[in-house]
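Hey, quick one: can you model this chain's 3D structure?
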Amino acid sequence: MDTARVAVVGAGLMGLSTAVCISTLGPGCAVTVISDQRSPDTTSDVAAGILIPHAYPDTPSHKQKQWFRETFEHLSAIANSAEAVDAGVHLVSGWQIFRNIPAEEAPFWADVVLGFRKMTEAELKKFPQHVFGQAFTTLKCEGSAYLPWLERRLQGSGGVILTRRVEDLWELHPSFDIVVNCSGLGSRRLAGDSAVFPVRGQVLQVQAPWVKHFIRDGSGLTYIYPGAFHVTLGGTRQPGDWNLSPDAEVSRDILSRCCALEPSLHRAYDIKEQVGLRPSRPGVRLQKELLVRDGRRLPVVHHYGHGAGGFSVHWGTALEAARLVSECAQALGTPAPHSKL
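Sure thing. Here's the predicted structure for all 341 residues.
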């Protein structure tokens, strides 16, 4: 077999980044992305897209740091290129603030972001209810621009995107040799994984162009993230809630909490409500599985379950998923692709 035919199920952040990584690794794979949802209708389009890691209890911190570093370096290169505007990637500076001094004053990712330091007393005066804070510069990735940019990059390298619903991974056999499952919450059905569950997130997208710095409460529940097109105000964390309709009372609460941190937001305008269901799990599922049925064999690579931390680690985990696809291709007798990306 000269070329492995790879189907990637899912066209959100994980599906597209994995497909691009596979196609960029070199010859040996023909990539097709299949999904019933595409940008701007994915969960990734709702996400704020700021690179501040979410901790996965079931994943060693050194592995999380590797994923974050690889993602930060990848997006830094884009931010420092002429592609930055089209890709929706830019630097943003700000503060993470705490009502109590955290157990670890410097998180595991402190030396990956830029200029990480403890906030000064003068800075903390802006937040009288908080006693400790961290200042740093990170990256923000606008999903509404980044996903279409990834689509164009994939198609430019010969990849194909099909819009249709996959009911069963087996329906992709024998048209494809390897399947990559990036279906997020769809993995409850497609992979029979009851460990993945929704965590509902409601946010407000507002116009407040004078807000230049991000502000994030250490709990992660209240945040203000200025972007290229709007400021994202959040948020909520509601496990097991499948409701995609915005709740007006929740929106009022979000705005109230954010105005307490940044009073100028009382003048924000063009307020839009958005809801996304984060595909959460105790740890990211990143592994190979060989499905066997009636003597047929279908290699599957699972890549889902990032919850609230997808943008922060997506390129690192996509690289790992692409390496697993490469191993599957080698097992099929396809020449292994080689590239450092």
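One thing worth noting: The first strand starts at residue 4 and ends at 9.
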